[in-house]
Amino acid sequence: MEFRSSSRISESSGSVIALILLLFIHAAHSFYLPGVAPQDFEKGDELKVKVNKLTSIKTQLPYSYYSLPFCRPKKIVDSTENLGEVLRGDRIENAPYTFKMREAQMCNILCRVVLDDKTAKAFKEKIDDEYRVNMILDNLPLVVPIERVDQGSASIIYQLGYHVGLKGQYEGSKEQKFFMHNHLAFTVRYHRDMQTDAARIVGFEVKPYSVKHEYEGEWSEKTRLTTCDPHTKRLVVSSATPQEVEQKKEIIFTYDVNFQESEVKWASRWDAYLLMSDNQIHWFSIVNSLMIVLFLSGMVAMIMLRTLYRDISRYNELETQEEAQEETGWKLVHGDVFRLPTNSDLLCVYVGTGVQCLGMVLVTMIFAMLGFLSPSNRGGLMTAMLLLWVFMGLFAGYASSRLYKMFKGTEWKRIAFRTAFLFPAVVSAIFFVLNALIWGQKSSGAVPFGTMFALIFLWFGISVPLVFVGGYIGFKKPAVDDPVKTNKIPRQIPEQAWYMNPVFSILIGGILPFGAVFIELFFILTSIWLNQFYYIFGFLFLVFVILIVTCAEITIVLCYFQLCSEDYLWWWRSYLTSGSSALYLFLYATFYFFTKLQITKLVSAMLYFGYMLIASYAFFVLTGTIGFYACLWFTRLIYSSVKID
């Protein structure tokens, strides 16, 4: 049916190719992806509502639902969470709400709370920071429908979670007051099977209200409210008399549950969540970016092919010694172009780390496009990225040791050790500082000690050994000889024109790769920091492929110009040319912070820039490695294509 691959996997052990083919072959039976199997409900079946973290785009600090004095069940039960959910700060617990399938309820009294100074202050702080309450029903997050009028036509958009409360003033007063959303009107949408009469949940919505409930006499468990009573058909439809948050004020929490049949099938129930953004602008921007980059790529490829063909033909036609002595350009540095670069060990480490990043991103996108990392599998994306990073350590060790052996190195264990620890150590240091800040704010986003131990185990117990295994395999494999021999005495590099200055060319080289992704980057940052879903992985994969092509081409072009100016120090410059796009990424993240976000607290700002620094660092090693390998392939190709005397 829905969210599943139409194939039946044989229980017998088959080949990998057969397994992949089975994923695409339509058969009679099907299987569901983990965690997203549909559940049928009969009329009157109990529905389990769960509460999740409180979130705010102003602070970026999540808190558990029961960190505020909301109504509680008799016993709070924590749901089992995966690694990604814990790292995201999710804290999923049972809720005191009681739902029964297709049985409407009106004015259910949840509990009565009398605020003291501490609880009133806690509610005010969360309302002031615009915190939202997140809930889950049948793996669907709670949303608030909002009608939006755009160019004369009305449409419904959905926001995740409802605000804890709101700020405002009474009529005729300028004093700022805080009001609590204490009445929730839930709407559960379901799709009914006409044959079995069973139903599946396809929507979970809420409209929050702030109501100062009133009642007669003393409060008891059997008290009937005069402001919300189904017997007198008095229902809450507005916040005309809001519930103020102040010390010694009593707050009565109530809720309605309404069930509505829907034509939306279970397979399409996530469409409302995934179509929140301005899709026309998004698609137009992506296509426009792709067309520009493809045009530039075609122009660069054409120029390079024609220029190189002319150069190689001219060099191979030189016959006399006098002609050979008069030659200029990239052939003159053939005896130095493969000379050992400075800090060659560090270059090997960064290249290996880049291969690890590239493998992680590539495989993650493939799984996401196949639907294995859908939003319904909360935390699945982050869990997959962590595990893939760990297992890609094998390729990191292999790549770094292969390059190290090409540099005539002998101590491969030292390179493997640095590859296993350099990048993770830098990221871990930043992460621990940020986690300490989150701990100081008593946020649920702080990683527990158990999870921290699991992360350390993944690093030291799995990733490090795999790096050494890959390093051993790569070092034992026979090395590939350079196309030309290296001179004993290094050639003096002539004075370079201003436009061939290393810093200038490196900074210029990073613009084009960043230009290939900056539009998509806007939507990614919006999904991360503005609490929205991002699930257009097909387009993201296409943009990623174009990023790879762009990094490779711009590095090759600038490397060619560098060699033509008789500068043979291309090793590090090729890495930094495409890797400098990470600088533009961080600058764009800074621009996004000041123009799109409403963060005012210092701790929240430090979290933002800390995490964006980690992302920029990873982007640096990823794009730098792509550019390096492209330039390595290019230099080996052109110097093996000419006759060297």
UniProtKB/TrEMBL annotation:
<dbReference type="GO" id="GO:0010008">
    <property type="term" value="C:endosome membrane"/>
</dbReference>
<feature type="transmembrane region" description="Helical">
    <location>
        <begin position="606"/>
        <end position="634"/>
    </location>
</feature>
<feature type="transmembrane region" description="Helical">
    <location>
        <begin position="452"/>
        <end position="475"/>
    </location>
</feature>
<feature type="transmembrane region" description="Helical">
    <location>
        <begin position="347"/>
        <end position="373"/>
    </location>
</feature>
<protein>
    <recommendedName>
        <fullName>Transmembrane 9 superfamily member</fullName>
    </recommendedName>
</protein>
<feature type="transmembrane region" description="Helical">
    <location>
        <begin position="420"/>
        <end position="440"/>
    </location>
</feature>
<feature type="transmembrane region" description="Helical">
    <location>
        <begin position="535"/>
        <end position="563"/>
    </location>
</feature>
<keyword id="KW-0732">Signal</keyword>
<feature type="transmembrane region" description="Helical">
    <location>
        <begin position="283"/>
        <end position="305"/>
    </location>
</feature>
<feature type="transmembrane region" description="Helical">
    <location>
        <begin position="496"/>
        <end position="529"/>
    </location>
</feature>
<dbReference type="GO" id="GO:0000139">
    <property type="term" value="C:Golgi membrane"/>
</dbReference>
<keyword id="KW-0472">Membrane</keyword>
<dbReference type="GO" id="GO:0072657">
    <property type="term" value="P:protein localization to membrane"/>
</dbReference>
<comment type="similarity">
    <text>Belongs to the nonaspanin (TM9SF) (TC 9.A.2) family.</text>
</comment>
<dbReference type="Pfam" id="PF02990">
    <property type="entry name" value="EMP70"/>
</dbReference>
<dbReference type="InterPro" id="IPR036259">
    <property type="entry name" value="MFS_trans_sf"/>
</dbReference>
<keyword id="KW-0967">Endosome</keyword>
<keyword id="KW-0812">Transmembrane</keyword>
<keyword id="KW-1133">Transmembrane helix</keyword>
<feature type="transmembrane region" description="Helical">
    <location>
        <begin position="379"/>
        <end position="399"/>
    </location>
</feature>
<keyword id="KW-0333">Golgi apparatus</keyword>
<dbReference type="InterPro" id="IPR004240">
    <property type="entry name" value="EMP70"/>
</dbReference>
<feature type="transmembrane region" description="Helical">
    <location>
        <begin position="575"/>
        <end position="594"/>
    </location>
</feature>
<feature type="signal peptide">
    <location>
        <begin position="1"/>
        <end position="30"/>
    </location>
</feature>
